[in-house]
Here is the input.
Amino acid sequence: MRRTYLLSRWLFLRLLGLVYLIAFASLAVQITGLVGEHGLLPVGQFLDWAHSIYGPRAYRLFPTLFWLGSGDLPLHLTAWAGVVLSIALMLGVAPAPVLLLLSALSFGAEIAYTLPGGRGAGLVPRWAAAVLGWVAPLRSFNGYGLFRVMTTERPEIVIEGSRDGTHWQAYEFRYQPGPVERRPGFVAPYQPRLDWQMWFAGLDPMGNWEWLRSLAGHLRAGTPEVLALLGRAPFAGAPPCRIRLAVYAYRFSTAAERARTGAWWVRELTGYLPPVP
Here is the structure.
């Protein structure tokens, strides 16, 4: 009997569509606060920068429909179009054969380049390397970033605001540790992108300084699109005049500590980041 794997293919496509659906749906409700006109890192400003540096080559290096318009409306339309296409894929729309070919080329090249001493580089045909170089800007495939070394400490940045420079109140993120008595939340499959980036920022504050500074500026301005990405905003009515970034070392409380205090976390202030301009 000839095996067709129809059931496996049917299941794979629908599960792949479900993954896309989760990704696009979670992005759709966050995209304006992240890269919208009044977001942390507006995509329009990035494209302007790219064009100023690369000129006409920017259109090939950064191929995107947002060259035609990068306001909040195109961003929302794109994200929700992804939701619709994800549902279509779950209904049986097959992936394009060219994406399969590109994925195979990328997979082969990645394996070759990971051989000890880089010896596998010579195994990649010249024509394949050239094809990969031309299509890489299309973001049709990507390397898989595996955490080879897990961190054993958890530094967290706590953003605090003040109207008088004396009394400070902390902003809360929905899925960051935050208050020590708050139970860790269950987030999957939703992807809170700002909360996720705050974890990286705690590990390398200066490497993430550009968008941390932008975040602080939006909190001082009380930008609604950015505030929507956070949890509780402590300043109702008028935003704070000052923002500071405190760094705490977090760890889970022990069973005895939790029984005694009710706290899920134990934290210690380790210092403050440079003043945010």
Notes: Confidence is low (pLDDT under 50) at residues 96-120. The longest strand covers residues 242-252.
